[in-house]
Amino acid sequence: MSTPARKRLMSDFKRLRKDPVAGINGVPNDNNIMLWNAVIFGPDDSPWDGGTFKLTMQFTEEYPNKPPTVRFVSRMFHPNIYADGSICLDILQNQWSPIYDVAAVLTSIQSLLCDPNPNSPANSEAAHLFSGSKREYNRKVREIVEQSWTAD
Fold first, then answer.
1. What pTM does this model have?
2. Which residue from 28, 115, 132, 140 lies 20 to 30 Å from 123 (Cα-Cα)?
3. Catalytic residue list contains 88
4. Which tens digits make up the pLDDT trace of 38-96?
5. Contacts of 70 (CB under 8 A, 6+ apart)
């Protein structure tokens, strides 16, 4: 069954394969194009450098008019990421636009790693440390990066 959402996801996938974006990767599940597995690499020269973070992206038949549900599978410590891995990011909520594709979503999440919004915290401890004790925040981030190397 080829719906507009599925056609758009095939197009997003072809574009990602043809023009890969440094630091991100996403592929549809073998038997379900509406469910993707993605990886974001921690940006260079940041506390996240060297990290490999896994995510899932769940799309509905309303994509691209509605955003996907994106969650980190990897354990995270970040002001805008909830304990369950869900992400507090405006383009995944009220600032969504159909012009965003899979690459744009993943790139935005990668940018969020280094540029959190501590005023809208999903993780109050991370937001508090980010604002008050950058050294301790960065130490905790490095722990998460090291865990990302050995996690499934």
1. 0.95
2. 28
3. yes
4. 999 999 999 999 999 999 999 999 999 999 999 999 999 999 999 999 999 999 999 99
5. 38, 55, 56, 57, 58, 86, 87, 92, 105, 109
